[in-house]
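Appendix B, record 7
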Amino acid sequence: MNDERIKTSEKLKGFFYVFILLMVIWLCLTTSLRYDELFTGVLISFLLAVFLIGTYVGLGFPAFTLRRFFYFILYILVLIKEVIKANFDVAYRVLSPKMPIKPGIVVIRTHLQQDMAKLSSNEQSLKKLCSCVRVGTEEGDLRNA
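Structure tokens (predicted):
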């Protein structure tokens, strides 16, 4: 019974997370706060959250907490700063007469536990910064060229 209760608790937390995420996406797409559009957004987000909750819980995403939200916002700010720095670096390398390019394979050791975290967050952030391609993944490592 305790396992069933935990699963229900996880599903409920996941439902609210998916619902809020879908509502934010809806508001960004419609850019309107009219009652009819808000009602439609709530209805569609609710129905999609009901159907997607099994997939969300099955993927093993962690529960949404304020601490995770804070770190997500911090991550986005650092990512924006690093993307801007990388763009200036690429411009320097393109405009430099001697083109200081040193190709190679980068190995990043991580302590991430979940497969989705390993493949999505770190890898996509690294690809955006240096225009690299993943050549392989080993246990705890991301290999990019």
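Remarks on this record: The radius of gyration is 20 Å. The mean pLDDT is 75.
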